[in-house]
Amino acid sequence: MCSVEKRGRLYILTLLGEGDHRFNPCTIDAISAALQEVQDSPDAGPLVTTNQGRYFSNGLDLQWISQNPDVPLSTLRIKFETLLASFMRLRVPTIAAICGHAAAGGFMLALAHDYRFMRGDRSVLYMSELDIGLKFSKGFMAAIRSKLMPGTLRDVVLGARKFSARMALEGGIVDSVSADSPQTLEAAISEAQKLAGRGWKKEIYCELRLGAFPGVLEELDAHEDPYNFPLSSKLSKL
Which of 192, 168, 215 is nearest to 95 (CA)? Predict the structure, then answer.
């Protein structure tokens, strides 16, 4: 599912395997446990999140949803909102090294980080909800809206536009683009090392992050609006 490696003061969280790293209760719990390890470390520095394979993450686990019809969809939505909130509560800088496609919830996970570095070849950022007939919870929308410029937000949410790395850089979604996965991770680690050297107080960093994006944590914690699959949704036919 995922691994956590400590390099000096840095932590590297890697989504393992060649699959598309979808989110179900087990994978969310594994990532949450990794975040708690970082949070509990007294000398923790920045966190870099990355992936193996072609996908950073393809979002919520639709197969798990279809195989567990008796489990309310709100269960998975609430767990994922809680995961996004955990990234906001981390007392260290966070960097996403996006070494593959990030769609829907995978895109949201990348946006939950303070910095985003992206692989330049064959990687796409895509919020697919409009195309497949889903709506966002208030928490999801708050998290997305807080990290995107108005024009880019329109294209992401109301245009379901697929962003290449270069387009994402031009749209202010990502901070850096590298040629391939090793270079992307190397650039993210280099930035994390620079941030670690600043010697910032962790509690102050977290408080400033929450102040920079007001209301997002409250919306994620509120867990409002069921994440429904309307009858018109393609997912209702699974």
Answer: 192
Distance CA 109, CA 112 (A): 5
CB 152 within 8 A of CB 172: yes
> By the 8 A CB rule, do 5 and 11 touch?
yes
Q: What is the pLDDT of residues 102-152, one digit of tens each?
A: 999 999 999 999 999 999 998 999 999 999 998 899 999 999 999 999 999
Of 74, 85, 94, residue with least CA distance to 229: 74
Spatial CB neighbours of 134, under 8 Å, sequence gap ≥ 6: 227, 229, 230, 233, 235
- Write out the two tokens for 82: 């809680």
Q: Are 124 and 162 in contact (CB under 8 A)?
A: yes
Q: Mind listing the pLDDT tens digit for each residue in 68-106? A: 999 888 899 999 999 999 999 999 999 999 999 999 999
Q: What is the pTM of this model?
A: 0.94
Burial class (CB in 10 A: 0-12, 13-18, 19+), 133: middle
CA distance 125 to 129: 13
Q: What does the pLDDT look like over 206-225, one tens digit per residue? A: 999 999 999 999 999 999 87
| CA 34 to chain CA centroid, nearest Å | 14
Backbone φ and ψ of 112, nearest 5°: -70, -15
The CA-atom distances, in angstroms, between 106 and each of 40, 125, 190 are 25, 9, 23
Measured CA distances, 120 to 50, 107, 180, 236 (Å): 14, 16, 6, 34
What's the pLDDT at 122? 82
CB-based contact 117:187 (threshold 8 Å): yes
